[in-house]
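Sanity check

After download, print the first record. It should look like this:
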Amino acid sequence: MTDISSKTGGIDRSHDSSLWPKRVFASLHGIIVLACLWVAFGGGEWPDGLRAKVLALCALLYFLRHLVTLFVLLQRRVEMSEVWGLLLFMAIFEVGFLLLGAGGLSGQARPFRPVDWAGIGLVLCGSYLNTGSELQRRKWKQNPASKGHCYTGGLFAYSAHINYFGDSVLFTGWAILAASAFAFAIPIMMTLLFIFFHIPALDTYLAERYGDEFKTYAGKTAKFMPFVY
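Expected structure tokens:
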């Protein structure tokens, strides 16, 4: 097989424990989430206190999934430059969604409607698609017979990048709960980055690593949204 570059799409995919950057990342992200919980549950009165609490709990769920990703699933190298960039992004959407939903700009409370319950469903579904699919792949990789092969089972049978699709679903639900048109900039931006940047770069890496096995799989499997694209 030809020599494979460990860096694709600006990400170094070589294996490395990177415990120090991961610990810094988890600790600082935890501080952001604690701030969200304090703002929602103990930081004063908001026009829409219920929505603020729901959004803070979304941030807590995302943080718990982040811990699983960092310390269970993620085997590649993590650079501090990546940590700082992602922390800034997380602070923007976790705190930003909370302030929008709490009525920080509108000064109004919005009653919970069926679309908000659908938003909660999307948050939970997207979380499962992302983390659940990764846990399925991890279990498969622990089998010595899987070494050198491309995982095509579980949720990845429906989409080659079902984990990315899960994040788009998650953030769409989160934006619905923020009850502001401004919030939808996040899921739209993420989806565009997945489709036009991350997926092409990762497909190139996987094709180099697994050759015809990946090409056959990619040729008959949706790239992003199951049964659609």
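If your output differs, re-run the checksum step. Summary of this record's structure: The first strand starts at residue 7 and ends at 8.
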